[in-house]
Amino acid sequence: MTTSWTIPSIRAALEAKKVSARELAADYFARIKARNPELNAFLALSPDLAFAQADRVDAQVARGEPLPALAGVPVAIKDVISTAGITTTCGSRILENYVPPYDATAISRLHAAGAVMLGKTNCDEFAMGSSTENSAYGPVRNPVAPDRVPGGSSGGSAAAVAAGLAVAALGTDTGGSIRQPGALCGIPAMMGTYGRVSRYGLIAFASSLDRIGPFATTVQDVASVLAVIAGRDAADSTSVAVPVPNYLAELGRSVRGLRIGIPREYFAEGMDPAVHKNVEGGIKLLESLGCVPVELRMPHTDYAIATYYIVATAEASSNLARYDGVRYGLRVPGATLLEMYKKTRGRGFGPEVKRRIMLGTYALSSGYYDAYYLKAQKVRALIARDFMQAFQNVDAIVTPTSPSPAFRLGEKTDDPLQMYLADIYTVTGSLAGVPGISVPCGKTPQGLPVGLQIFGSYFQESRVLQLAHAFEQAGGFSIA
Amino acid sequence: MKITREQVIRVAELAHLELSEAELDVYSRQLDEILAYIEKLNQLDTSQVEPMAGGTITDFRSQEVERSGVPENPALREDAVKPSGVAPAVLNGAPDPSRPFFRVPKVIDR
């Protein structure tokens, strides 16, 4: 059996009856069994569901029916996305036994497209972190270098795809949590425009920033999964009715003549020299494809981390107020209702989640709202305006995804601010709401993957995908 | 000092978090560091800036929506009751259900 499947190769093999969806699913469960004890990428497996879905696809093949877009494709789902009947922990003790009664919209769309759901992937608790070390269920190891982190917070999804334990995966991105682990594990990873994919059933961290998006091993597969999950959903009032173009059909369009903005602020101090070298090489590769580099200024970039850690923590402190031991999850008994709340939350949440709830509560507390939350939302508007002004003049913005390649487990756990700075190139696009992808851009001399980040303007996912695809086809994966 | 230990205790009260003495020490130090870092936002004059209120800048997003030829989403849906059918499953997953209620420690003293 082939070792590295893609969405088109699965379709071809199913149609030619060279493999059944059931065999494929069984093969992936065997891979997970062999590799997951080391990587800790999966928290729960769903073989009953997977084989039922696979059998449905095999029946379609047997009847000669046209196969849906993701027929038989084994997928993994970050454990912050609700899956009916399958435990969804958010990487937290407080939801250790939580079984959602319904599917997120992204999940029902994957099911309808014939995907086969293998299980749920490990992540930083409530998606708060950049290394997946904040999971209550132990860290994930980077399949490329197992003494190192896979990035985060969607580290389990990234590691699963990079290790060949799933063909595609869903993650969520609030400040970089799809793109950064994609970069650190060496696979393409994308978030669409805010509102492009429904958040219904995504367990909320920061509602104005949270986005669901795909990981895969090729840009084409990323495009295929995004096409399935994108689009207006009446159950999420922030999802948008702008039509979803045919990303696959537009993927192969020439990128010649496209103007790519290179913001000087993203190439300042603090970047690992090997990352810098590869990203410079990546920009040269895009130039060789006919793209026109344009130097840009995005003057508010340096304020993005500070802005993000107010906006995101304020929203988190509000969203996470629901974990009180009453309706679901952990309850630690107390003599009074208030005591029960405090004990439940004090024991159920891990250190990073408590730190962020504290910061967010402080930022929203009486007398501080204007100084922190309102101020941050104003600076956020300035950061978004940097992007919109840039897009008057360029078709896309190209930057590094992460200032450093994968770091060692434990290297940054004692210094939250240092960990926050790992998101320095990704949070800007999160705050602005624009789409972005990280695409592999070679490896460092130590063999660690580097990611190139491409941002587009609102709803310009096709443009982002075209550039990433052209970059990949031109050999971006092997830049040295 | 951006934040005192007393303020940290007060914030933990507001957030309904029971924290140990050791946690209060650590969070006092770390929140102080983070707030000192966040201070840098005050370098910017934002007196003339409209704050962002959602995930995108609405005026720019509207341009894109207009270009797409599709009207902006209807902001409000019809106010109609739609049974979700999940109540039994939700109660089954609750820490202390007493159908059709969630039971909690006594709230009112008589």
Question: Can I get a quick summary?
Answer:
The complex is a heterodimer of chains A (480) and B (110). Helix content of chain A is 39%, strand content 12%. Chain A has 480 residues and is α/β, with parallel strands linked by helices.
Overall SS class of chain A: alpha/beta
Low-confidence stretches of chain A: none
CATH superfamily of the domain at 1-45 in chain B: Glu-tRNAGln amidotransferase C subunit, N-terminal domain
The major β-sheet of chain B equals: 2 strands, antiparallel
Q: CATH homologous superfamily of the largest domain in chain A?
A: Amidase signature (AS) domain
Helix/strand/pairing class of chain B, anyone?
mainly alpha
CATH architecture of the largest domain in chain A: Alpha-Beta Complex
* Largest interchain contact: A-B, 83 and 60 residues
Evaluate the radius of gyration of chain A.
21 Å
- Straight-line distance between termini of chain B: 45 Å
The averaged pLDDT of chain B comes out at 88
**What's the domain count of chain A?**
3
> How far from one another are the termini of chain A?
31 Å
User: Given this structure, which CATH class of the domain at 1-45 in chain B is correct?
Assistant: Mainly Alpha
The residue-averaged pLDDT of chain A reads: 96
Helix and strand arrangement:
The complex is a heterodimer of chains A (480) and B (110).
Chain A: H1 7-15, H2 21-39, E1 42-45, H3 47-62, E2 74-78, H4 105-112, E3 116-121, H5 155-162, E4 168-173, H6 179-185, E5 189-191, E6 211-216, H7 219-229, H8 247-251, E7 259-263, H9 273-288, E8 292-296, H10 304-319, H11 337-348, H12 351-364, H13 370-390, E9 396-400, H14 416-420, H15 427-432, E10 436-443, E11 449-455, H16 461-473
Parallel strand pairs in A: 2-3, 2-4, 7-8, 7-9
Antiparallel strand pairs in A: 1-3, 4-6, 5-10, 9-11, 10-11
Chain B: H1 5-14, H2 21-38, H3 58-68, H4 87-92, E1 97-98, E2 101-102
Antiparallel strand pairs in B: 1-2
